[in-house]
Amino acid sequence: LPSRYAGSETSVWNEYIKLAAAYKPLNLGQGFPDYPPPSYVTDALKEVACSENNFLHQYTRGFGHPRLVNALSKLYSKLIGREINAQTEILTTLGAYEALFSSIIGHVDNNDEVIIIEPFFDCYEPIVLSAGGVPKFIPLRLKEVEGRLPTSADWVLDKNELEGLFNSKTKAIILNTPNNPLGKVFTLEELTHIADLCKKHNVLCISDEVYEWMVYKPNTHIRIATLPGMWERTITIGSAGKTFSVTGWKLGWAYGPENLLVNMQLVHQNSVYTGCTPIQEATAIAFEKELTRLGEDECFFVSLAKELEVKRDFMAKFLSDVGMKPTIPEGGYFMIADWSPLESKVDMSSETDKYKDYRFTKWMTKNVGLQGIPPSAFYSTVHKNLAENYVRYCFIKQDENLQKASDILHKWV
Ligand code: PMP
Ligand code: GLN
């Protein structure tokens, strides 16, 4: 194994998916809907699959299928408030994963520093390391709250600590809003602070916005690329898997200025070269439909967020009813909860993992029949202790299964 991969051998996903297959718990671990996507989306794929147009079954344009980049350009031009060139300012990728990979590998050089906000989607760190970069971590910290449950807005960055990380070696910052796993939706004030630092130190912003449509009232998703002077230095990343509840389609994209996109295209053209044609065509059809009803009640992006908000509230209630302390997420479809009030009911002596949240989640999977993800997977080694009292649960699940999760927990405590 090349040394640049040393330390990245384990993956919480591979480990916990295997564990779920072995113990068959109620699975609130890996994030994916356990119910079907909207039928017009699957119908689009059906139509494409049966199409006699041979071109829909052959290689498409390497940097993005024409119909899809046109739809993405229409959508994001509107949302960003500037004309986005479909040919030069968008790249479609194999999931948001590849967009993250291409943007990091395409910009980070040996010894470049990259600021990563904790908790972070776990692949950021190994990708930065494999580029030869040096990750610099800063944790969001929970403020003291009294008389109510915390929300993801109560998890904040220390401004001075953040400023202290920016220097002449800083190449990029990776932002994730709404954040996985906290659900934090960064506010205009927080984004402005980050943007000002990026501009002052000439730093690139890689903004992972895959949960852009899952934002709960009264919060709003702000795209950092829309802040003054930020378009020039931001790559924004999205995912069809999240947008249309089709995580298995593994289609993502990035948009930003041409001079940054060319660097990503270089990585893409010699690794993936071109994405899956039928999936891109079907996703284009789905976007074209949503473009006709953007912001209306019938718009899937609107109805999905409404549906998820109810699930979020249901989960927050049953977790707090059994004695955990959830952080109410403002966005995304995950919830973290402090399980330490239940510690006396857990006997994890048979579990050997270093971190308590791993021991807890494994013990729960095996003995209680409910799976969550250990959030220390989303922290650097030095900060993993900050997450040990927490578990992450996914709530984009059928009501019936959320009810089952509630029953399992009530029966256990
Ligand atoms: N970023 C975040 C924050 C995610 O939660 C995910 C989900 N796996 C991804 C990126 C990757 O998305 P995709 O499945 O489209 O590769
Ligand atoms: N984004 C999803 C999650 O956080 C899936 C991650 C994965 O499968 N690698 O659970």
UniProtKB/TrEMBL annotation:
Pathway(s) served: Amino-acid degradation; L-kynurenine degradation; kynurenate from L-kynurenine: step 1/2
Gene Ontology terms, MF aspect: cysteine-S-conjugate beta-lyase activity; kynurenine-oxoglutarate transaminase activity; pyridoxal phosphate binding
Presence of the UniProt keyword Lyase in the record: yes
This protein's record includes keyword Secreted: no
GO cellular component term, pick one: mitochondrion
Span of domain Aminotransferase class I/classII large: 25-405
InterPro entries tied to this protein: Aminotransferase_I/II_large, Kynurenine-oxoglutarate_AT, PyrdxlP-dep_Trfase, PyrdxlP-dep_Trfase_major, PyrdxlP-dep_Trfase_small
GO biological process: one example: kynurenine metabolic process
Gene3D superfamilies referenced in this protein's UniProt entry, alphabetically: Aspartate Aminotransferase, domain 1 (3.90.1150.10), Type I PLP-dependent aspartate aminotransferase-like (Major domain) (3.40.640.10)
UniProt KW keywords: Acetylation, Aminotransferase, Lyase, Pyridoxal phosphate, Transferase
Substrates-to-products reaction catalysed: an S-substituted L-cysteine + H2O = a thiol + pyruvate + NH4(+)
Cofactor: pyridoxal 5'-phosphate
Top-rank lineage group of the source organism: Eukaryota
Family: Belongs to the class-I pyridoxal-phosphate-dependent aminotransferase family.
Oligomeric and partner information: Homodimer.
The protein's name: Aminotransferase class I/classII large domain-containing protein
Species of the source: Brassicogethes aeneus
